[in-house]
Specification:
Elements lengths: L1 H19 L6 E2 L1 H13 L5 H13 L4 H10 L3 H10 L1 H13 L7 H11 L7 E5 L7 E4 L2 E5 H4 L12 H12 L6 H11 L9 H19 L6 H8 L1 H11 L21 H15 L4 H10 L5 H11 L6 H9 L5 E4 L13 E6 L9 E3 L9 E7 L5 E6 L6 E6 L15 E6 L4
Parallel strand pairs: 1-2, 2-4
Antiparallel strand pairs: 3-4, 5-6, 6-9, 7-10, 8-9, 10-11
Length: 433
């Protein structure tokens, strides 16, 4: 009986801790006050060194672990802040009051996080930090922390973006018009889900599912679709987006789909919508909904086989995985010509080798040792791309009666559209003197 009473007492002590781990005490907002203290001091002088001193002493040095993690994740420096403060005074003046309001919203997170815990019982606690960034991110996560950039996350249609450069304005203008301040709870849930994920993505498909998982689960928690531009644009243009994504999903560049601004009439971040749609399809085709949620959150995004199996099981695409890979492969550029021939002796006085490609190429390049390693590697420099970007010339240093080889790699050479080159090994032998 004493043993039973002891166990009962232990459980009574543990239960409040278990249910209290998602309390608003885990929402930290002190960085907001510290930033505006530093901001007011910065505005008293035009001396840039003094401004750097103020932001360092009054904001960075007093920063929470969340601020330090946010700065590291987004490569913010004291100079980043001073630059933004000096260049965009109308922006800062218009957003200031909203950032303070974040402090009174903390109680609204508890119900949403408890709902998240109910659909994903394995949920681990995370600390939510409201910080001030330098206009690059409304939120991210890392090391069990939700990191919110309040200068963006608390914005609304009243925020003045008139001083921002065109590229920044094109992204933040529509974002603020979507009134993110009114939807700050979903933003926090999205980032909270990120704290439960474990691995980094290897390619575009994995990264889109990584982000889409958070959007879809946020919708399950809040029972509302995220009011972001890509969630309005996506459903209206899904057929063409689906077709385009089918040929690009295996790329390891995100530029057309993620973390980008409006381009060619399309809104940015449409990869979020594609990932969300794939996750929704996976969920809808799953008999065990709770297991489907677990599958999404715990997916090994670095494992291409696991990610591709998830795509197949989502039944989002009618084509087989092999067909999808083929649609991608036919887009990759190939080497169509080399100025030296493998079956013909090359003049040892040759100083350049030209490579021709099947498509207009982008700026990136890479070359590697061939099967013979360093001893058979002839490249000493580059002359660069031709004006039409469909050929590239290497400088070489050759010896008579010698075998040479090197690899033109798809890891570096890419088409202007971003597709990696099918790697090609250049092999030849020089003739006598």
């Amino acid at each position: 009986m004493k043993k039973l009473s002891a166990l009962l007492l232990l459980n009574l002590c543990i239960l409040p801790l278990a249910y209290g781990q998602y309390s608003t005490r885990k929402v930290i907002t002190t960085d907001i006050d510290n930033f505006w203290t530093a901001y007011d001091s910065i505005r008293t002088t035009n001396d840039s060194l003094k401004q750097l001193y103020y932001i360092q002493k009054l904001y960075v040095n007093r920063g929470t672990p969340g601020l330090k993690a946010f700065m590291e994740a987004k490569d913010y420096t004291p100079g980043s802040y001073v630059f933004a403060i000096r260049r965009y005074p109308k922006f800062w003046a218009s957003v200031r009051n909203n950032t303070y309001k974040a402090k009174i919203l903390t109680s609204e997170f508890d119900p949403a996080i408890k709902t998240l815990n109910s659909i994903y019982p394995e949920l681990k606690p995370a600390v939510i930090y409201f910080t001030i960034g330098a206009l690059n991110s409304a939120g991210t996560s890392g090391n069990g922390m939700v990191l919110i950039g309040a200068e963006l996350a608390t914005g609304d249609s009243t925020v003045d973006v008139s001083e921002l450069p065109p590229a920044l304005k094109s992204g933040l203008g529509p974002y603020f018009r979507s009134d993110p301040f009114q939807h700050i709870v979903p933003l926090n849930i999205h980032e909270y889900v990120h704290t439960q994920q474990h691995s980094e993505a290897y390619n575009l498909l994995a990264q889109c599912i990584y982000e889409g998982t958070c959007d879809f689960i946020t919708e399950l928690v809040t029972l509302k679709t995220l009011p972001l531009p890509y969630m309005s644009y996506g459903p209206e243009h899904q057929p063409e987006l689906k077709a385009q994504f089918a040929t690009e999903m295996f790329l390891n560049t995100y530029r057309n789909w993620l973390y980008n601004g409006t381009n060619n009439g399309k809104v940015g971040d449409l990869g979020y919508f594609m990932g969300y749609t794939i996750c929704r399809s996976y969920y809808n085709h799953s008999k065990n909904k709770k297991q489907a949620i677990k599958d999404m959150i715990e997916l090994n995004y670095a494992d291409t086989t696991a990610v591709e199996n998830f795509l197949v099981n989502s039944r989002y695409y009618e084509q087989s995985l092999a067909q999808l890979h083929q649609a991608y492969e036919v887009k990759r550029p190939i080497v169509t010509g080399v100025s030296v021939w493998p079956n013909k002796p090359v003049n040892p006085n040759t100083k350049e080798i030209k490579i021709d490609f099947s498509a207009v190429m982008g700026r990136s390049t890479a070359v590697d040792y061939g099967p013979g390693g360093k001893d058979t590697y002839p490249v000493t420099g580059i002359s660069g791309f031709s004006p039409d970007k469909k050929s590239f010339t290497f400088k070489v240093d050759l010896q008579p009666d010698t075998d040479y080889d090197f690899i033109i790699t798809g890891g570096g050479f890419r088409s202007a559209e971003g597709y990696p080159l099918v790697s090609y090994t250049v092999k030849f032998k020089t003739g006598p003197k």
